[in-house]
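Risk register update: the risk of archive-format incompatibility is retired. Evidence:
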Amino acid sequence: MTQLMPLIMSPVFAKKPWGGNRLAGYGKQIPAGGPFGESWEVADLPAAAVATVSDPRSRVASGELAGRSLRELIDRFGEDLLGRAAPTPEGDFPLLIKLIDAREHLSVQVHPDRDYTERHPEARLKTESWYVIAADPEAHLYLGLRPGVTTKDVAARVGTAGVVGLLDLVPATAGDFHHLPAGLVHALGAGVMVAEVQTPSDTTFRIYDWEDRYDRPNRAMHGAEALEAIRPELRSDFVPRPDTAGSRTLPTGDAYWIREHRAARGEVPIDPARDVRVLMVISGTVRIGHHEAPPGTTVVLPAAVVPDTPVVAGAGAVILEIGLT
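Archived output:
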C-alpha cells in the first residue's frame, strides 16, 4: 500500500519576456526556449483558468507517487494530505507557490478581491505575499498608490508611463517580506527574485507594461477591469529582515500563514499540527525527513506525516513554513 511522505514536486516553468537567469543558479533545470521568469513550485489549477502555461499542475518528482498531481493526491488521500484545510471549490490544492526572477520590471497590475469576484464569477481572487530572496543594488518594488492618488488619476494614465509616477517606491532587500492584499496596484522591480505565496489564481489586470523601455511584445491592457478592482487606500504589509536568528510569523491575509525560520541550526520548530504544510528552503541546506534539501527546494508535507517528519537545518539556513487557515 502506497504511503504518503514528504513530496518534492516537479516545477512548472512559465515563459516571461522579463525573465532572468537566477532560477538556473537556484537549482532549477530550465528548459530551452526561454526566458523563463517563474518556477511554479506548487501549482494545481484547472487548465481553463490559466493562459500562461500549458499544464498548470505540478507533479510529484519521484517515488511511488511520481507523476501524480496534487489534485490526484487530494482525490486519493483526502484529509491525510490536507488535514483541516479545504480544497478549492473545484477540488484543487488551495495554494499557488512560485519562485519569480525579474530581469526587467514586471507590468504594473492589480488582482481582484472577493467583492470583485462576487460580481464577476469568471475572475479568481488573488492575494499574494513576496519574500525577497535576492535583489540587485538600487532595486525596488512598486507597492500601492501614493497617498492622495485616486482611481480617476489612474484612469487618466492607463497604458502610459504616467502610471509609474502614481506609485509608491519601496527598496528591495533580501530577507524583507511584503504582503500584497488583492486590490493593491503593484509591480515587481527589475533585478529582484522573490518567493511568492498566493491564493490559486492567475487573474491579472495589467495597466502598464513598460513598452517604452523594453523591447517586449505588446500585451493586452485591462484598464476597465483594473479600475474596478483597484483599492486606492490599500498599503502592503512590510516586515524587514531581522538582525537575529529565530522564528517569526509574517503578516498575511485570511487564506494562509507563513513563518520564517532563520539561521536556526539544528531541529526546526515546525508546527506539529496534522495539517498540510509547504516548506521552502531559501538558503543553506536542510534535511526534511530523508530528503537533503538545498536552496531552491520546495517540499509539500502531507498532514499525516507532519508530526513525524524531522526538519533539521544546517548553519545559516532560512526556511519558509507555509500553512493554510
